[in-house]
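Lab notebook, bench 4. Still working through the backlog of constructs that have no structural model yet. Next entry is a single chain of 137 residues. Request: give me the structure tokens for it.
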Amino acid sequence: MEQGKVILFDGVCHLCSAVVRFVIRRDPTRRFRFAPLQSVVAQQWIQSSGIDQNSVVLMEQGHVYVKSAAVLRILRELRGVWPLYYLFVLIPAPLRDAAYDFVATHRRQWFGQLDACMVPTDEMRDRFLDEFQDHLK
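Model written out:
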């Protein structure tokens, strides 16, 4: 299993794929690696930990964060003003997650979906877990 910070995301969701590109552009120190929820490696982690498949997931130093907790922890690592959004952690998690769930429920309706997982550009390819890279060759 990969060490460090791994973001699992819905690889066929336009919004989720845009968020991955957003994070990559604001993560010059390359803290984050990525795997679509549809990948074999992500499915193994999901099955072993019971992760909600309708959620962005951050796996960090043996801990698993989902929904708003994952989003806030990701934002606090990015360059620019994005770490300031971590202050939303002061809002109770059930309220944050209700807002997250509302967007997650409607994201494909609002933003659409892809027929297949996003294919990373050559510049992004090394940011994706090896199992997913093997499928791109």
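Notes after review: The chain has a mean pLDDT of 83. The radius of gyration is 14 Å. Flag for follow-up if needed.
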